[in-house]
Design the sequence.
């Protein structure tokens, strides 16, 4: 702040000396020539009217007007900002404690240049005069604008990449969860899959064993299914599989499971269910399928039931239920 004030007073003194040689009668230096030939753009402006009273050579070269014409113009003819914009810029300079203003000046060829105007008021013969130094900052402004555009582009690019990255992560996660969920189901019938069975068995293995029945497994195999496919076609065969699962689901509880174990073979995993209750469920399912009206034939199946006491023996229990199911097929007429 102190340096700014010193520079301010130094410039005023130099300007006063250059305009009023009477203040430097003993000086051997012609300050008026220094002022006129100085490389910086210098204007002397009437503070009341805005009229340009004096312009050095640098100003004439910069603005491109003949000296005679420039000295008949006012600063308002050069400044492209309106009064409201000028007022806002002055208020901004005051807030930011700047000793200069940023304006847009129009040259003789119509080009608009960004300038910093450092104006210093001096009272001369009771009349206020502005001694202004004009600095062309157009290239600097363009560079700053370019850097700002690059910064914004980089910011939006980063946000775009960041958003895309998390979008892809979310898609991959959801896809993974979706396929994991789909893998748990048989796509044709909607029953649970063999993969789900493996997960269920692993889950049940973590439970403690007891002398009570933990689970009850029922192995179901559709009778004469090959004949159905051969005589009525695979489309009808697929519909039969779907129908069996639909009816099974309608007779079990929400904590029980229907699993497609093989082509036309299904498992029922029943929790907290005894053999008598499981036989009741199975007989209702058999009756429903046998009397169905959707097909030209009754749907029948054989089954085997096995209680599970030891979670480590689930696969073995399924095998035993499977053997019981095949025993129940013995003596049946398995062709249409």
Sequence:
């Amino acid at each position: 702040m102190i340096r700014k004030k010193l520079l301010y007073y130094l410039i005023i003194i130099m300007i006063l000396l250059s305009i009023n040689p009477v203040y430097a009668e003993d000086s051997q230096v012609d300050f008026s020539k220094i002022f006129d030939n100085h490389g910086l753009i210098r204007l002397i402006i009437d503070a009341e009217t805005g009229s340009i009273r004096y312009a050095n050579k640098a100003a004439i070269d910069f603005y491109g007007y003949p000296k005679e014409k420039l000295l008949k113009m006012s600063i308002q003819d050069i400044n492209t900002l309106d009064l409201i914009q000028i007022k806002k810029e002055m208020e901004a300079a005051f807030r930011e404690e700047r000793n200069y203003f940023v304006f847009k000046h129009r040259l003789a060829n119509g080009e608009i240049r960004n300038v910093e105007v450092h104006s210093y008021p001096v009272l001369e013969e009771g009349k206020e005069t502005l001694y202004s130094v004009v600095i062309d900052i157009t290239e600097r402004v363009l560079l700053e604008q370019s850097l700002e555009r690059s910064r914004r582009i980089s910011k939006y690019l980063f946000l775009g990449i960041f958003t895309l990255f998390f979008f892809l992560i979310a898609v991959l996660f959801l896809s993974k969860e979706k396929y994991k969920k789909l893998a748990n189901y048989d796509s044709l019938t909607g029953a649970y899959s063999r993969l789900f069975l493996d997960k269920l068995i692993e889950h049940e293995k973590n439970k403690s064993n007891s002398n009570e029945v933990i689970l009850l497994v029922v192995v179901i195999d559709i009778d004469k299914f090959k004949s159905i496919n051969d005589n009525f076609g695979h489309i009808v065969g697929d519909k039969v599989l779907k129908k069996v699962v639909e009816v099974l689901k309608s007779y079990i509880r929400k904590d029980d499971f229907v699993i497609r174990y093989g082509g036309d073979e299904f498992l029922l995993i029943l929790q907290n269910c005894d053999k008598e209750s499981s036989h009741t469920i199975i007989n209702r399912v058999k009756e429903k399928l046998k009397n169905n009206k959707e097909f030209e034939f009754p749907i029948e199946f054989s089954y085997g039931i096995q209680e599970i006491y030891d979670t480590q023996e689930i696969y073995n229990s399924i095998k035993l239920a499977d053997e019981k199911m095949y025993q129940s097929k013995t003596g049946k007429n398995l062709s249409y």
About this structure: Confidence is low (pLDDT under 50) at residues 1-25. The two ends are 107 Å apart (CA to CA). The first helix runs from residue 2 to 19. The chain has two domains: 2-143, 194-329.
